[in-house]
Amino acid sequence: MIKIIKATLQDVPVIQSLAATIWPVTFKDILSQEQISYMMDFMYSDSALEQQIGVHHHQFLLAQQNNNYIGYLSFELDYKSDTKTKIHKIYLLPEVQGQGVGKRLFEEVTALALQHGNQTLSLNVNRDNSAVDFYKRIGFNIVGEENIAIGNGFLMEDYIMERPIGLPM
Ligand SMILES: CC(C)(COP(=O)(O)OP(=O)(O)OC[C@H]1O[C@@H](n2cnc3c(N)ncnc32)[C@H](O)[C@@H]1OP(=O)(O)O)[C@@H](O)C(=O)NCCC(=O)NCCS
């Protein structure tokens, strides 16, 4: 059975451990090893996660299967003071992908965003990530693209994708 729970600061080590397993597999054919290591530190160090949760109001959901953690999603309500909810991260262990857990996490965040009065879900995804097709499957459209410089000469080469929250999943 899949359970979705809200994470707290105490769950930071769980998020870090899941990311350390999922990230290298997800990006092995998309980013260099150097960029993966750089981004892991940039996004998942203790201080980075504490900033995201404590300062930038990112909320993390954790997915559990038989009491084991299998993935996470992070989101931010009222993104840039707009009626948008930004999905910052969604990562599932390779062995549970394709079993509907990603969709479950999106149903959960959609309910929370709707309850909060937001109207749009928005996210960035690497243009070479096959997750683009997952997002299309659950109703997202590509609305733009951007290359974001993240330091050390590295770029995030993303699509921006959005979906109206009211649209049935
Ligand atoms: C992307 C991800 C979150 C999707 O979650 P998931 O649990 O694997 O997807 P689901 O099983 O909920 O799939 C929902 C639907 O999308 C489809 N789908 C999922 N991944 C897909 C893909 N890569 N390409 C095409 N369709 C896909 C499924 O077939 C399913 O379709 P259906 O409703 O007709 O059965 C998950 O695969 C993952 O963690 N991937 C690695 C990390 C990653 O890339 N994260 C995104 C970073 S921006």
UniProtKB/TrEMBL annotation:
UniProt xrefs under PROSITE patterns: GNAT (PS51186)
N-acetyltransferase domain span: 20-166
Pfam families, per database record: Acetyltransf_10
Keywords: Ribonucleoprotein, Ribosomal protein
Domain of life where this protein originates: Bacteria
GO molecular function: acyltransferase activity, transferring groups other than amino-acyl groups
Cellular component per GO, a single term: ribosome
PANTHER family found in the cross-reference section: L-AMINO ACID N-ACETYLTRANSFERASE
Name of the protein in question: Ribosomal protein S18 acetylase RimI-like enzyme
Organism: Sphingobacterium yanglingense
